[in-house]
Design a protein that fits this description.
The complex is a heterotrimer of chains A (237), B (327) and C (292). Chain B is mainly α. Chain B is built from 14 helices and 4 strands. Chain B has 2 domains: 248 residues, no CATH class; 76 residues, no CATH class. By secondary structure, chain C is mainly α. The relative contact order of chain C is 0.21. Classes of the chains: A alpha/beta (237), B mainly alpha (327), C mainly alpha (292). At the B-C interface, helix 5, helix 11 and helix 13 of B face helix 3, helix 4, helix 9 and helix 11 of C. The complex binds adenosine-5'-triphosphate and magnesium ion. Chain C: It holds the Pfam family BPD_transp_2.
């Protein structure tokens, strides 16, 4: 298996406070990998480091062998890593449609804009009716759909989703998971952060348990589902 | 030794050393320039309390200084109040004005405060300069209520000219030194005392401090008002020292000069602003040769420091200390 | 009736001038959280460059205006590179850039004074004559100012609303991190916004000086007024700033007519303070974002 994304001994943090310690990771083409772990142990920090919003203090990050850890965020997006951040971070004073179109900001994505827009609307039909509404006035579930949809508009090689089901009602979570399953079926490479380990285990090829800045356990979904009790302590489930 | 005690000791030692200066260097120029240094040092030490310690981004400091100067001159000019009485009265007027400004501005966010205080200062300036109706008509010509562009002169002095003759400036030196010592003691009391701790808490952890009932607004208003007292007093003394009070005290160049002192020395520290005031007075002295380039030089110094060394010279030393502690 | 036309004419002219200098400030604050205190010096610089090109070199105004806009746009770019960029990532940016731009403004103002002298000069770019409406004279110059400002605002609105650069500016102002995740190079956006703001300042400075003449410190009061307008509108709210600029322009003309020039700024300010006590985030300010 040739790795799409490789992290080697990456460290990162804020100021003097180190959050990610010596972490290594390899993600294969077409894989769906999940990062699980308790609150505040650095999942978001790791994604922000990969997408260049934070600079790693050590280690290397590479996409298909090309070093990314000194590049600017916009260059990393151009290289093909799309990050749907925790809390959506929509553009509140733009409409739903404008938000989605911002996803296709880079020229390469802009060429595919019309086609991808149809794909997003097919995935989240509700957004088609809400096109003209200001993003700042959307409900939490709608906002999440716009956030994910905006990420899909960008295309790219690897999609990173940070807690796509956080804070949503069960029925909306089902819709989001359906969308993730569709993505998986279409062969996209996905790195997803999820608190609900049991649920993501059904979909993921591989799971990594992040504990205090490094991986405490890695394995397949089947492994996790077969012996959940050993991880219960970590996950507080 | 606690930081407060150490500061106190430094303060008294410095004051003692400075008290000897007129005995050692007798030239009038050095003594009067030192007196001016005392005045500016008082203003920046108080401005630093407002800006660096309480975190109020106020640009009204020179306006409060001007209020002190004008109130003194007007009390002397219109009511012939003796200067010894007029000066503290004027300082109280500054406090009153600062409380009004504070009530209007302090609930707003940082940049709003900066712009509003700057605008208020500018309005005061315009009121003084644009008011051209004669209030009285002395032999020297029409006198608007706020003195107009010419300003006030001959409003009285502290009496040292009569007492000491040509050596009056030495007495003013000691008055200035006394003022600065008082202002520094006040500064130390604020920074090292409960108010300083409250602001430290607010800076470090706003949410927690607020939940413990540390209300920012109240404390900020206190510091704003109290620091206006010494600022106004410095303004009053400025008027007495030069015998003239005119709209030049509002000038942007002076504001820039004093702001540079704080930034160069180190915002929020006890001694940084004093150091900055001394260095900038010296730099200013050095640049006197190059005349017109002086203001440009000051601007360059200010920009270089904010961009490259935002914590000032005092910050440099603090960083050195913390590095030494770590290793 | 005549009085009303008179007040309307000078109020709209004032408003147009304020609006033009306010847009730039508001855009810069909306995108970078930067209060550019060098703006006043940029206004003066624009006025003097136009004066230099027309009055000293003897070239036509059609060259003087773009030359001024180019020089000031470049100056804005330099301010970004030398002052804003090095401190963007570190703490206390808002305060530090404010102080730094005070210093830059002072430097620029003094350079202008050394180059052109402290005495006032007339702006060569001025129309003479007036339109007669009944018994009221409306100077052509006022109409020109109104026309140029409105045209320029339309250009800026189109730029922000319809172009790729404009989309990037708005996205950056609304959410810096998200903009980066869309592939926007925000450093470039910042530089563009400051350059744009500089060019607008040049135009505004030329218009102001065509009414009141050139002085090295001529930018101080207009800048302060522009900031006051930004505050009333809510910092960073571009559309609100334009509305507030015209409102305050009309108000100022009214106060000037009723009470005389010397009190207009003071009263304006009292009104602003009242507005802020009533609505601390400004008249239209919900959040700090670039809105259209
Ligand atoms: N901007 C920041 N500055 C300083 N510390 C931060 C910052 N952002 C996060 N942290 C700290 O870094 C640690 C890891 O945070 P992170 O957001 O990566 O956790 P997480 O695993 O994503 O948690 P959650 O599941 O709650 O989203 C936390 O202790 C957090 O307080
Ligand atoms: Mg997280």
């Amino acid at each position: 298996m040739s790795a799409l994304l490789t992290l080697e001994r990456v460290s990162a943090g804020y100021g003097h406070q180190q959050v990610i310690r010596d972490l290594s990771l390899a993600l294969g083409e077409g894989q769906l990998a999940a990062l699980i772990g308790p609150n505040g142990h650095g999942k978001t920090t790791l994604l922000r480091t990969i997408s260049g919003l934070l600079h790693p203090s050590g280690g290397t990050i590479a996409l298909e062998g090309r070093r990314l850890d000194r590049l600017r965020p916009d260059q990393i997006v151009e290289a093909g890593i799309i990050h749907v951040p925790q809390g959506d971070l929509l553009f509140p004073e733009m409409t739903v449609l404008e938000n989605l179109r911002m996803g296709a900001y880079l020229p390469e994505a802009a060429r595919e804009e019309a086609r991808r827009l149809e794909e997003v609307f097919a995935l989240f039909p509700k957004l088609r009716d809400r096109q003209g509404q200001l993003a700042g006035t959307l409900s939490g579930g709608e906002r999440r759909m716009v956030g994910i949809g905006r990420g899909l508009m960008a295309g790219g090689r690897l999609l990173m989703l940070d807690e796509p089901s956080l804070g949503l009602a069960p029925i909306v979570i089902d819709q989001i998971y359906e969308a993730i399953a569709t993505l998986r079926a279409s062969g996209r490479s996905v790195l997803i952060v999820e608190e609900n380990a049991m649920r993501i285990a059904e979909l993921a090829d591989v799971l990594h348990l992040l504990d205090n800045g490094s991986f405490a356990w890695s394995g397949s979904g089947a492994e996790l589902l077969s012996r959940p009790e050993s991880l219960a302590a970590y996950l507080g489930a | 030794m606690s930081a407060g005690r150490r500061d106190l000791l430094v303060c008294l030692l410095l004051a003692g050393a400075m008290a000897l200066l007129p005995q050692l260097v007798g030239t009038r120029y050095v003594v009067t320039q030192s007196t001016l240094f005392f005045i500016w040092a008082v203003v920046v030490s108080q401005w630093n309390l407002v800006f660096g310690v309480a975190g109020i981004f106020s640009l009204a400091q020179m306006a409060l200084f001007a209020v002190g100067a004008y109130a003194t001159a007007m009390l002397g000019y219109y009511f012939a109040v003796p200067m010894v009485v007029a000066m503290p009265l004027a300082a109280l007027v500054s406090v009153a004005v600062s409380l009004v400004v504070g009530l209007a501005c302090l609930r707003l966010r940082g940049p709003y405060v900066a712009l509003l205080t700057l605008a208020i200062a500018q309005v005061l300036y315009l009121v003084v300069v644009n008011d051209t109706d004669c209030f009285t008509n002395p032999p020297s010509g029409c006198m608007p209520f706020f003195g107009g562009v010419r300003g006030f002169s001959r409003f009285g002095d502290l009496g040292f000219r009569a007492l000491l003759g040509s050596k009056w400036y030495v007495a003013h030196y000691y008055v200035g030194l006394g003022l600065l010592t008082l202002a520094m003691l006040f500064s130390i009391a604020i920074v090292r005392g409960p108010l300083g701790l409250a602001f430290q808490a607010l800076r470090d952890n706003p949410g927690y401090a607020r939940s413990r009932g540390v209300g920012q607004f109240k404390y900020q208003l206190w510091v704003f008002g109290l620091s206006a007292f010494f600022t106004g007093l410095a303004g009053a003394f400025y008027g007495v020292q030069f015998g003239v009070v005119g709209p030049i005290v509002f000038s942007l160049a002076t504001l820039l000069f004093l702001l540079s002192m704080m930034v160069v020395g180190g915002l929020g520290t006890v001694w940084g602003p004093l150091l900055g005031a001394a260095l900038l007075m010296l730099a200013d002295e050095g640049m006197r040769e190059v005349g017109d380039w002086r203001d440009i030089g000051l601007g360059v110094i200010l920009v270089l420091f904010v961009v490259l060394l935002p914590r000032g010279l005092a910050g440099l030393r603090l960083r050195g200390v913390s590095k030494a502690k770590q290793s | 009736m005549n009085v009303a036309i008179q007040i309307l004419s000078s109020g709209l002219t004032l408003g147009a001038i304020y609006a033009l200098s306010t847009i730039g400030l508001s855009l810069v604050y909306g995108s970078l959280n930067m209060l550019n205190m060098a703006h006043g010096a940029l206004l003066a610089l624009g006025g003097y460059v136009c004066f230099y090109v027309m009055g000293v070199l003897g070239l036509p105004g059609l060259l003087g205006v773009p030359a001024a806009m180019l020089v000031c746009g470049l100056a804005g770019f330099v301010v970004y590179q030398l002052a804003a960029r090095p401190m963007l990532a570190s703490g206390g940016f808002e305060t530090r850039i404010f102080i730094a731009t005070i210093g830059i403004g002072a430097i620029l103002g003094n350079v202008i004074q050394r180059s052109f002298g402290p005495q006032p000069v007339a702006q060569p770019l001025a129309l003479h004559g007036a339109l007669v409406l009944g018994e009221v004279y409306v100077p052509y110059q006022n109409l020109l100012i109104l026309f140029v400002s409105v045209a320029m605002m339309a250009v800026v609105a189109l730029l922000l609303g319809r172009t790729r650069v404009g989309r990037a500016i708005r996205a950056t102002a609304q959410n810096r991190d998200a903009a980066q995740l869309m592939g926007i190079r925000i450093g470039r956006v910042y530089a563009q916004v400051l350059a744009l703001s500089g060019a607008l300042a040049a135009l505004s400075g030329i218009l102001i000086s065509s009414l009141s003449g050139l002085l090295p410190n001529m930018g101080g009061d207009p800048m302060l007024k522009a900031f006051v307008i930004c505050i009333v509108a809510g910092l960073g709210n571009v559309f609100g700033a334009v509305v507030a600029a015209f409102l305050l322009g009309l108000l100022e003309a009214l106060i000037q007519y009723l009470l005389g020039v010397q009190y207009s700024f003071a009263i304006l300010l009292l009104i602003v303070i009242a507005v802020l006590i009533w609505r601390p985030a400004g008249l239209f300010g919900r959040r700090q974002v670039v809105r259209l």
